[in-house]
Specification:
- This is Glycosyltransferase.
- It comes from Eiseniibacteriota bacterium.
- Keywords: Glycosyltransferase, Transferase.
- The chain has 432 residues and is an alpha/beta fold.
- It folds into 2 domains: 3-232 and 407-431, Glycogen Phosphorylase B (Rossmann fold, 3-Layer(aba) Sandwich), CATH 3.40.50; 235-404, 3-Layer(aba) Sandwich (Rossmann fold).
- 51% of the residues lie in helices and 13% in strands.
- The strands form 2 sheets. Strands 3-2-1-4-5-6-7 form a 7-stranded parallel sheet, sandwiched between helices.
- The longest helix is centred in the last third of the chain and has 26 residues, at 406-431.
- The protein starts with a strand and ends with a helix.
């Protein structure tokens, strides 16, 4: 048993986002074998009431209130200060926002008091926290290779000015992200494809170090250990029973703070849903998600869609739909919603980008369609062919249980963590 400190920039409860469910799943696995302290930040004072829910996983929670939420005046001053610092230093505003003095101080204090053998930091934007880890090993949980999301967003952008701005941001943030990976003893990725990307970029960065002095080059060449941490799906989704009566309901689910989800819904409303509705007037589009209620909501409702907004119980959402549409044109990481839909036995129509890195086979566990025309045909075909829909639902659930069940993955995930802990022993052996 080792002492492990896990650090996340934001509070992970209620678990209504895929990234939050990833965080809670990691805590549950770690607590099964190690002593764990969880450091996160509250954006709202009333989030304190959820701390016992996290502690039920067997971890101790330290959750200070973010300094910008002490009062409206603190919020305005904090935002102005971070914007100015970002302009002066080139540090992303999000990195400044998350890695504030309160979180840095809490991390340093826990390092002295808890004395962890391993500290796991979530999200590369927290790279400024690395200097506050005074003892033990440090690992980064990279939810995705974020620069790839920017690259795909630029490729999908038809406006030349907007594309140029995206490419400029891509060049800047890719350098920062790869540099952040290199600060850690290990990097954990959620997909094998992201693992390969991280390894490739780290090796490329090491090759670029050839102009350094011999000592600096030797230090830079010590690449982090890169481990795949597969994502489990909560058992409650596998217990879900599909309603017997088949209908014509298409579901869209996403957190609308993410630009790739806003783009995907706009794409669905403009280029996919009208053709589907024309062919199947009885079809219904149901949209769920949090973090956005602006122009897209008006467009969805004008198109006749039902806007649910935030859905606390995703199983209830899956009861309301007969097909999940995931028409992402760019994105990264692992699409938790696809895994959970498969576990719930819900047929899925997705773009190859949405399913990238999952290891699923188009036509066996779900339907893959590359463009608007193909997405329309796949959606209409699946709604009409209830036998195919039921077959995909069964196959998707069986595949997900085999590859993403909690009990199946826990030994693999703990082995990935143990491989990082073993780095300390190997380093000690080399020093003798």
């Amino acid at each position: 048993m080792a002492r492990i400190l896990v650090v996340k920039p934001l509070f992970p409860y209620p678990p209504h986002q895929g990234t939050r469910r990833v965080s809670l799943g990691l805590l549950g696995d770690l607590a099964a074998a190690h002593e764990v302290v969880y450091l996160c930040q509250r954006e709202q004072r009333d989030e304190e009431r959820w701390i016992p829910e996290i502690e039920r996983l067997g971890v101790r929670v330290v959750a200070p209130l973010m300094p910008n939420h002490l009062s409206p005046a603190h919020k305005a001053a904090y935002k102005a200060k971070n914007r100015l610092l970002s302009q002066l230093t080139g540090t992303p505003e999000l990195a400044l926002y998350w890695s504030n003095a309160v979180l840095r101080g809490s991390l340093a204090r826990l390092g002295r008091e808890f004395r962890p053998a391993l500290t796991i930091i979530e999200n590369w934007e927290l790279y400024r926290l690395r200097r506050s880890i005074g003892r033990g090993l440090a690992a980064l949980l990279a939810h995705d290779a974020a620069f790839q999301i920017l690259a795909r967003a630029a490729a999908a952008d038809s406006d030349e000015r907007s594309k140029a701005r995206r490419l400029q941001r891509l060049a800047r943030e890719k350098r920062l992200e790869v540099a952040a990976w290199r600060l850690y003893d290990a990097v954990l990725t959620l997909t094998e494809s992201d693992r390969e990307t991280v390894l490739e970029e780290l090796r490329e960065a090491a090759r670029d170090d050839r102009g350094l002095s011999a000592g600096a080059r030797a230090h830079a060449a010590a690449l982090p250990l890169v481990q795949h941490l597969p994502v489990p799906v909560a058992e409650e989704f596998f217990a879900f029973e599909r309603p017997a009566a088949a209908r014509w309901r298409i579901g869209f689910l996403g957190t609308f703070r993410a630009d790739f989800n806003r783009d995907a819904l706009g794409y669905l409303l403009r280029e996919i849903w009208p053709a589907v509705h024309q062919a199947l007037p009885q079809a219904e589009l149901i949209v769920a998600g949090n973090g956005y209620a602006g122009e897209l909501r008006a467009q969805a409702e004008a198109a006749g869609a039902r806007w649910l907004g935030f859905v606390a119980d995703l199983r209830r959402f899956y009861e309301r739909i007969d097909l999940l549409a995931v028409p992402l044109r760019f994105g990264g990481g692992v699409r938790i919603r696809i895994l959970e839909a498969l576990a719930a036995g819900v047929p899925v129509v997705a773009t190859p980008i949405a399913a990238a890195g999952l290891g699923v086979s188009g036509g066996r566990q779900l339907l893959l369609a590359a463009g608007a025309g193909e997405l329309v045909q796949a959606t209409i075909g699946l709604l009409k062919d209830q036998e195919l829909a039921a077959e995909l639902g069964r196959a998707g659930r069986a595949w997900c249980a085999e590859h993403h069940g909690v009990q199946i993955l826990r030994p693999r995930r703990l082995a990935a963590i143990q491989a990082i802990l073993d780095l300390a022993g190997r380093a000690a052996d080399r020093s003798r």
